[in-house]
Amino acid sequence: MNIFYAIEAIEVELESTRNGDHRQSVVTSNLNHLLAMFDRTNGLGLATLTKLLYFNRVTFEGYPCLILDSRIISVLQEGTFAELQSLRHIRYRKGIEHYIQYLRIMSEISERFATNTENFEQFLFLFGGRLKVGKQD
Q1: Domain ranges of the chain
Q2: Which of 25, 67, 92, 113 is the least buried, fewest Cβ under 10 Å from its Cβ?
């Protein structure tokens, strides 16, 4: 199915994940529905799906959704940040399978550095691929 024909179904699915305050955690059954929709909808890639989740303020297992796109994945794969080493294995085509792990680790790191996850994700997006790590004496 093409994303343009699935837009109403996507909207209904996202709406069912939220309550009045728009911060309800997605239960496993809803996560499975979203993943099934992801698999069967042409044009609904990892970046688009995670943007929809982020902008609809969805959480999984208590972790706020973040955008996971090819630029972030490139930063993760570079291994520049020791704190993100456990995410180096993420690839775009299989990124959704590791999405909860990504959210959990990003949340833990953000907490450690006393910032919110959105700021940390934005930092990785904007600067993560541009930082030069030199030898330390």
Answers
A1: 3-127
A2: 113
